[in-house]
Design brief:
- The structure is a single chain.
- The chain has four helices and eleven strands, in the order αβββαβββαβββαββ.
- The protein has one domain (38-211).
- Strands 7-8-9-6-5-4-10 form a seven-stranded antiparallel sheet, covered by helices on one side. It has a two-stranded antiparallel sheet with strand order 1-11. Strands 2-3 form a two-stranded antiparallel sheet.
- It has helices spanning 3-14, 47-54, 112-116, 181-202, and strands spanning 31-33, 40-41, 45-46, 56-66, 75-84, 89-98, 131-136, 143-149, 157-164, 207-213, 215-217.
- The longest helix has 22 residues, at 181-202.
- It is of the alpha+beta class and 218 residues long.
């Protein structure tokens, strides 16, 4: 990890004085999370896409997946935790792949067909079948959700949700947390990547919950 990255995260977790030169006092600092360096998280999520597109620097992740009994009803769940820059706020990304036409990933079990009633712009990709959409919480600017409906008999859906989970976001109106078009474009790129990557992993050998967390002594 570069010194700049380590310094940024230490500043987020310990305050702005974390990067000052305190000599031997640094040795007594508490352990702080460090940014993960895995190129791919949860077997399917490119780390660089999160960092470069969403300014989201992962610090931990947890996931599991399982093939269905009839080889088609496959399930995949992933949760990635980290820091949203430049705000320096705790954030998370949820990815869910389910059957039955309902969205997971923190979307409250919404039926995909309910999205049609919202008048959301429809997304399609040339290299795969199905349709999807991306939308954000315009009132508070705390999350963006992406959804995809696969044209299979089990009505598989893919849901992704990027969420600013830091409690400070609910009270500080000066943090400029609303997502812009660049963020929506980045989520579209992420949705495209996962629409292709998740189904074969979910259909593979079952995986128990796997977690990854990295810590560094400040």
């Amino acid at each position: 990890m570069s010194r700049r990255r380590a310094c940024l995260l230490a500043a987020v977790m310990l305050g702005s004085s974390a990067c000052a030169d305190h000599g031997d006092d640094q040795a007594s600092a508490s352990p702080v999370p460090t940014f993960l360096t895995d190129q791919t998280l949860c077997e399917v999520v490119p780390r660089q896409l999160l960092e470069n597109g969403l300014g989201f620097y992962p610090t931990a992740f947890s996931y599991w997946h399982s093939p269905g009994h009839n080889s088609s009803r496959d399930i995949f769940n992933c949760r990635i935790y980290g820091i949203r820059m430049p705000q320096g706020l705790q954030s998370s990304l949820a990815v869910s792949y389910f059957i039955g036409g309902k969205l997971g990933a923190g979307a409250g079990g919404t039926e995909f067909t309910e999205l049609d009633d919202k008048g959301l712009p429809q997304i399609t990709f040339d290299d795969t079948q199905g349709r999807g959409c991306i939308w954000s919480d315009d009132n508070r600017g705390r999350w963006i959700i992406g959804a995809w409906l696969y044209p299979d008999v089990d009505i598989h859906t893919l849901g992704i949700r990027f969420y600013l989970s830091d409690p400070k976001t609910a009270y500080d109106e000066n943090l400029s947390l609303n997502y812009d078009q660049d963020d929506l474009n980045a989520m579209t790129d992420l949705l495209h990547t996962l629409v292709l990557a998740v189904p074969p992993v979910a259909a593979g050998p079952a995986s128990k919950r796997i977690t990854s967390t990295s810590y560094s002594q400040g």
